[in-house]
Amino acid sequence: MADDSIPRRGFLAGAGVASAGAAALTAGLPQAEAAAAEPVPVQTWLVLTADEAAFFSATADTMIPADALSPSGSDCGVPVFIDRQLAGAWGAGAKMYRAGPFHQGTPEQGYQLPLTPRDYFAAGVEAANAWSRKTYGKTFDRLTPDQRAEALTAMESGKAAFDDFDAKVFFQRLLVITMEGFFSDPIYGGNRGKASWRMLGFPGLPATYAGKVEEYRGKRYVAEPQSIADFS
Amino acid sequence: MAIRLKEIDAVVIGMGWAGGIMARELTLTGLNVVGLERGPDHRPAQDFAMPGIRDELKYQQRLELMGDNSIDTITFRNQPAQMALPIRRWSAFLPGEGVGGTGNHWGGSHWRFQPDDFRLRTYLQTRYGATSVPDTMTIQDWPVSYDELEPYYDRFDKVCGVSGKAGNLKGRKIAGGNVFEGPRANDYPNRPMPASEGGAIFAAAAKSLGYHPFPVPFSAASAPYKNIYGVAMGACQECGFCTRTACEASAKASTVTTIMPALRQEPKFELRTRVFVSKLVYDKAAKRVTGVLYTDLKTGQEYEQPANIVVLSAFVFSNTHMLLHSGIGVPYDHATGKGQVGKNYCYQFEAPAAAFFPDKELNPYMGSPGGGVVIDDFNNASFDHSGLGFFGGGYIIASSGGSPPISGRSVPEGTPAWGNQWKRETVKWYYHSMHFNTQGSVYGHRDNYMDLDPTYKDALGRPLLRLTYNGTDNDHAMSRYLLSRVEGIIKAMGPAHYELRPRPKNFTIVPYQSTHNAGGTIMGTDPGNSVVNRYLQTWDAHNLFVMGASTFPQQNGYNPTGTLGALALWSADKIKNSYLKNPGPLVHA
Fold it and tell me: B549: which DSSP letter?
């Protein structure tokens, strides 16, 4: 485990999006928002450990790589979103039936673990990093971009065998929470600058579309996206 | 120790659609009514207000308006031989909680069943032969006819301000409406919503194939509307955030938007929220329920509320559970096929499809569910089933719109789920895909039922309800047939790509499929084939009325709410005109 003693890269030294992250963060944004985004505050985490923050940043950037369409997942705030979700009521298992006894059940019977989402992801990151160390000699965040893609593909297809943890199910839940962070309203900490909404052409919240279905029949409706914060 | 309260004329358990209707109708007859609701009250002006109501993460993903599984859920298994395990978080179906219930977050598809749906077994045996219905298919006729219910369907249309176009006015067929529907006394209160672009393309193709497209009947006002209770509804704003979310414009019909504004002014009505009803107090010898036991979740205090009339109007699962737990009626015994409570659980068999049109601009986030276009040519009695090997059917609907970015992105099968190519394909298709759905019937089967779970308990220590359900060969064959009809229409639309998305062989409690559950406290002609009679009065307690889709003998190829509302109004009328004058059994078995 010599590997783990080496200090993490820049974004972890600043615990998030400082330094190198800042330039990337504003790169994809129009002038006005870039100005509004400065200065970038030091990222602090509500519940994520340094290892978890590094893992979610790396998986977000692999699932949502920076390209002409949008900045990367971490530059869009996906790890911040995940941190806040896991720290909140949902992450703590609100509205979840958690009484035993516990049995594995069939796939048709759905999620049957006692773990809250926060505990589930903590255990999953540990298992994924243990597998990554065994397979590549490094934790996931230290893999090359090609290795990360290969590792995620192995989890997705069920070829990666984690110790005592279902890698395939973990991958699906990781994909869902990553996409939620990328596409949800920016009030939750992801989708910074409405990057994913701009990418899709999703206008966010309308006050109303009454009459617009007919007015824009066969024509594309184009509008500056608006978030909940823009109405508040 | 429960505190015994003063007796009330009527107590209503569950303030969703049926509970709201009964509370309003019974107070109009002069009764004092208490409404008991496990969840919170919902006031649109503060709870469903802009901009927070347009939040896909909160409502669509985190299920803000749905029931709390931590205090009450059900267990599930596919087969009687399996161990059932708890549904730890709602997914396949999403029962709501709080005043308004599931009606707050529904999509507003507002349907009547076909006249022959109400005499299903007789219809099938008459048309296809006395031995045509297999022994395992436990379907039965309703004890009420379409013609009897029509005035109440009509009244419910006027509670909701439904927007649509009639296809059968007093027997006269009208092109552009649903020509397969039963005769209506009146057209819809409001004109239909504009068709989505996807719906319009579908309509043209369906018509070219000789089918009969029409706008989906939508339980929202397309223009400002005052309903029969004097409640003002706003006009639909076509915001695109309808399903799983409540309506900021008070245009989508629910108990909250169409009934509560009147009930809040009604001195004969008292609403008690955050109270969890645990049991009906049953006097078996007197064939009466004397009241209900509930725990106030705000204080932990248990109360007994005596009542002259008890209306059980919770969700399908809770209705069935309450009777089983209170020892009312005979539980269904799977081994012998005897007993009625829990029998004929029926889901809705919805299978979707998608098509991709690179050259069409579909503005996928815009519009209401009322922008959908339907054909009803393949519902139960709309077509000849000879030689097909199944019974049943359902309507086919197509639309674009209502596709927010987390849950509404559609890409062709085989597209990577992440990475650069995923991004390119997601952007490429977002504006250019549309969706189809088939609203398939589910006919009762002796292996699909509900009973009490031997292992798991709810927050009050009661055994959970156990659901045993799997898709039957009949229903799979029906669904494949509907999808094959969809495919024919899609081909006529000329997409660059399309895909049918049939349901897997085994029913699975993830992902979401439909909230349309039915059965468990079914209605019939005598205690040997049902739990309630034609007026929704239980055979075993004459002052207990059970409301909702739990009383449907089977699930038809339509959304249940239109019929659920009509049945509540029909029952309320009978209570008013007969039961109050002469309390006792309304049907003598």
Answer: G
